Amino acid sequence: MLLTVLGTATPYPRPDDPCSGYLLQGEPSAHGGRTTVWIDAGTGTFAGLQRHVDLDRLDGIVISHRHADHSADLLVAYYALRFSEHRPSGPIPLIAPEGMLERLAAYLGPNSVDELPRVFEHRPMSGFGDARIGSLSLSWGPVQHGVPAFGLTVEEGGRRFAYSGDSAPCLSLEEIGERADLFLVEAGYDREPDGVPAHHTPEDAGRTATAAGAARLVLTHRAETVTGEQARARASAHFDGPIDVAVPGLALQV
């Protein structure tokens, strides 16, 4: 599998960094094609997505939770997937929390209610679940973020990718990331909050990757007060494996 970072910024896009979004592609088939899934549609990521894949080659979309910095570009994707000359021949599987289409319709207007299912085949996330898109086997489960939010695991050919979405440290995320060859974990806090946490610090990310037995950690969606090198150093005190810092355009083999 090939992971390409489209954006990492939180909670709003920066001049050179859209919000959270990632492209995951399976290994090339005998005919040269590869399964292509857009993971999180944060603000600004749809433009970057088109650098790497034609719209009619997009096989699925996964949204970890409904916060705008992870889902807002579904609004512009709706127009492209409905009207582009290169639009897919049928609705795109959209694996996302319950109520996703209703939230989009509230913004797009009443005329979109009938059109949205023609663009997105919504497969609601609720609790633990699984699906198959092309050559990729997907599974997900709830994590702690104060709203319905889900971590994701994708497997192909014995390789295992895991993604935290936005989450506080929790046992379910450790299980989702178990034995991941590459574990993409957000580090949205510089310091632990006084109240109930909703994100990881870099130290938390290191501990979660270690508890999961992951082989490789990629830090993303980090707090703006923490540089990439600072995040790497802080996570490395709790994780002995290789650590990468996600930036737009970074491509990593899983």
TrEMBL record:
GO terms, molecular function: 3'-tRNA processing endoribonuclease activity
Domain Metallo-beta-lactamase, chain residue ranges per copy: 36-221
InterPro entries in the record: Metallo-B-lactamas, RibonucZ/Hydroxyglut_hydro
Record protein name field: Ribonuclease BN (tRNA processing enzyme)
Organism: Herbiconiux flava
